[in-house]
Amino acid sequence: MEWRVAAIISLWLIAGAYSFPSVSDSFENDLESQARLFLAEYDRQSSEKCFNAANANWNYATDIRDETEKIKLQKSLENSKFQKEAWKNITIQFKTRENFQDPVLVRTFKKIAIIGTSASALPEERLKEFKQLQNTMSKIYSTAKTCAYEDVTECNLSLDPDLTKIMKESRDEQQLRHAWKEWHDKVGVPIRQYYKPYVDFSNEIAKTNNFSDAGAFWLREYESETFKEEIEQLWQTLKPFYQQMHAYVRAKLRDTYGDQFTEDGLIPAHLLGNMWAQSWENIYSLVVPFPEKTSIDVTEQMKQQGYTPLKMFQVSDEFFTSLGLIPMPPEFWKESLLEKPNDREVVCHASAWDFCNRKDFRIKQCTVVTTEDLITVHHEMGHVQYYLQYKDQPLIFRRGANPGFHEAVGDTLALSVITPKHLKEIGLLDDSTPIDDYETSINFLLSMALEKIAFLPFGYLIDKYRWDIFDGTVEPSNYNAHWWKLRREYQGIKPPVERSEENFDAGAKYHVPADVEYLRYFVSKVIQFQFHRSLCLEAGQYDPEDPRKPLHNCDIYRSKAAGSKLAAGLAMGSSRPWPEAMKVMTGQDKMDASAIREYFKPLEDWLILQNAKLAQPPGWQKSTNDLESEAHSYLVELDQLSSQKCYESSVAEWAYATDINDENEKVKLELSLDSAKFSKEISQNVTATFPLWREFKDPDLVRKLKKITILGAARLPDDQFKKYAQLETDMTKHYSTTTICSFKYKETCNLSLEPELTKIMRESRNEEELRHVWTEWHDKSGGPIKQTYKKFVEISNQAAKLNDFNDTGALWLNSYESETFKDDVEELWQTLKPLYQQIHAYVRAKLRNVYGDQFSDDGLIPAHLLDIVVNAEELCLASFLKFEFK
Ligand code: KAW
Ligand code: ZN
């Protein structure tokens, strides 16, 4: 093989500043082995660029200055430029790469191609602009200072540790409110102006990579077309539990802060022990179920025992190695930054670093000696363990199986570390403390749920929010409103002070200005329990059949079996799609909430009971705004459905009106009953879903809803409505089918109103004939329906009353939407009456000429002389029966 390599290397393709082996013609038939050589060289050069960029980035993040920022930018651009050249080379040399036999090669190229394009998507100048923009936002976040509550002229408080400590420890509502507002105003507001340009840049890059927007670009890392739906499904499964937690915590907070804060069921965001209300373990002492029993807050113990940040990392390292995992290398201990320095600005948000040389791995964390940070230490150590496990993979596969995996490693181990059993073992809980009773378990599980379950909606909504922004669903003018819409809807929390579109509260969370995808933490929270369950089974620490070995008590400490199972999955890096790595670690190839549910089962049961006892209904009110937009969408959907129904009934009515027969009548009646049921259902739906619709701000919406809720006869109970419709049909049918006998030919008895009688009324001047026709018609058409009509009036008044009207007349008048309509019509009549009387007098005089004066002695004109047989009853009924939705 040696000569081949030599041949290729001698044929370097010089492209731009970087050189890659080029494809020689003579090797055309062996493109795949050339691809391998190419990749080896790519890996070497790429690692070097990656190292330089990481190094410069580290120097900046641990010492924020203009000088370090400049170098960081420069090295990052150099790396991008390199990736761009690599990508160009690939597209030229390996056009057929998707058809390679070796699936590893195909996967490798697919990954390089995406990374390469992302770097090269923008021209160098624009890329620089984008990176500067990202840096500007992150710097605002990392260097922000706020003013103290006690002394507003003291303005050097940082997030870490000052504000974090206040949010965690203070129980003074005013002070918490102040800290919350300071942080959100000092960080969110200045970041806001950069966010829209950032969104545009991100989308542009995504589009050049053939993704619809930056949200879709992020989701690619999960390699599943249905990932979003799977996440939603998981959330729906876990939501009831979250709502129970929420209800319980809310009730407890009322004991501390009074009920005035939570009347609407929402919890103000500043009372949950955390700046973002993302996890709630810091208010454990306010919500502890059994205060007299053991709790696992070991902060005091750690302090008493003289724990330092370094010691916390050593304890963590010892846990990892007890499983047979890889110890942190000497470079780690030498170069990591484990405490906040006080002589310079640093990026305090914790992170774990891979310097791409298989040697340097570091953590940067402004560690404080608390239980919370002990967990974070394990979290960060998990990242480094992953790095160490996959360090022998090619660079392109040195990533998590998916981003959620990377976040889950340390947390999985921490699930063992934090058990009371383990804390005893490492001397952080007094050996004599009883821990095996029910109350202690509930205390423990609640403290875990405050961290894990409370986090879920937050872990989901941050990216839901950004997906909505990236795909254009949310405009810049709605950035903050949308943030709070989701915070309210998913977390059931609200801002402690008034917010507006000046603010950009999402920007006050690290990952938003730092451009870090966040769904990974939601994924991690679910899969870490799957990992835990599998490792616990492996360690023999958990037995689903044995109540003495519940999942939440499991500690995998010192289990080499568990360690090697974990390592096997981690060592794969991203060389295979994540379900395969998951299969190796858990035997499952899907995300699944059953492990997390099982872990917390005793607590969930306890909470349901407790909330019932405390009469705490889980859930919270939605805001009028949210409800209004829901109502809008509902109406759009309804419009389609109703149009369809309306069409069907019209067809049936038409068929009947143009061919009165029993079959058509039956169909018409059925459809009208169906329509009535439908209207009733909708109306009930509206009042149930939007009980306060009358208070909506959009008048058009209120008008539509009002029309929907007035139902007319449809509001009658089904059997009554059937009767009503039958009466109405009987009457109109009788009217339409009445015939009378002829005046001249007594045996001819099939004269209909139209055309025969109408013609006679119009054309005949024979008073006797006219009188015959008039009398016959009225007797035959009107007479027999008198009883029916009486019933009809009763039932129709009953319907009117069900609609809150006095009678059918009032219901009819309602469609004129005027309180004074009756009076207005009366006034019109009074105005027109003199004219009518003039015409009346004139016509009467003329009719006397035709029929003689004896008919109008009293000034009245006999009705049969006026061609007015047709009345409007039919029309009235038709319009009365119509249901309008719009
Ligand atoms: C959390 C996680 C575990 C335990 C408790 C927790 N509480 C809250 C979280 C979620 C989240 C948060 O604080 O909101 N946690 C973090 O951000 C920890 C920091 C990190 O380790 O996840 C870090 C974030 C980061 C990403 C990219 C650039 C800079 C910082 N992620 C990494 O260091 C990392 C390392 C390897 C691969 C992927 C990410
Ligand atoms: Zn992390």
From TrEMBL:
Q: How is the cofactor bound?
A: Binds 2 Zn(2+) ions per subunit.
* CDD domains assigned to the protein according to its UniProt record, in alphabetical order: M2_ACE
Q: Where is the signal peptide?
A: 1-19
InterPro entries found in the cross-reference section: Peptidase_M2
Named cofactor requirement(s): Zn(2+)
Summarize where chloride binds, as residue positions: 222, 520
- Name of the protein in its database record: Angiotensin-converting enzyme
Q: Which organism is it from?
A: Daphnia magna
Taxonomy of origin reads: Eukaryota, Metazoa, Ecdysozoa, Arthropoda, Crustacea
